[in-house]
Write a structure and sequence with these properties.
There is one protein chain. The chain is of the alpha+beta class. It is about 35% helix and about 20% strand. Strands 2-3-1-4 form a four-stranded antiparallel sheet. About 10% of the residues are buried.
């Protein structure tokens, strides 16, 4: 579904579902000003178009003993397609890497890694990250406190 086809009701549906993906269709319909059948059709269309990729449960990291967030800047020896692909394939295999971005600037990649403690991060660093071919440097920054964390995308710029 192209951006131009997203109207105000679709935006309301997306905004509400980002806050509560388990909302009952009847409650969603009421919240966005539709009857249940048209609301369900719109949700299905948003899912089929790929605009809604999936539904998830957000787990509290501290409750599952993963309180340490590490932001890792990685620089490769060479920025050639083969090295980039190899690095990305290796990172996709690591469950402790929640996010990985190819960057502009000093570092080639920025990772967000979650681990239970510093020893676990050291183990990840020594046995996995430093062993990826082509890695030239690694700089780690430890988050002291999470000030803001959102998963909902701001949609106010879409259809009025």
């Amino acid at each position: 579904m192209p951006k131009s086809q997203i109207d105000q009701i679709d935006r309301k549906i997306l905004t509400r579902l980002q806050k509560d993906g388990r909302i009952a269709n009847n409650d969603l319909a009421e919240a966005v000003g539709l009857s249940p059948s048209p609301c369900l059709r719109r949700v299905k269309a948003l899912e089929e178009s790929g605009l809604i990729r999936t539904y998830v449960a957000l787990v509290d990291p501290a409750m599952v003993e993963l309180p340490v967030n590490v932001f890792v800047s990685v620089t490769l020896e060479k920025q050639v397609e083969e090295r980039l692909d190899s690095f990305e394939a290796a990172i996709r295999q690591r469950p402790e890497v929640l996010e990985c971005y190819l960057m502009t600037g000093e570092a080639d990649y920025l990772l967000r890694v979650v681990v239970p403690d510093l020893a676990a991060y050291e183990q990840f660093l020594k046995t996995h990250l430093t062993r990826i071919a082509g890695v030239a440097s690694i700089k780690s920054s430890f988050a002291l406190k999470q000030v803001r964390y959102e998963t909902a995308l701001p949609l106010h710029h879409l259809a009025v």
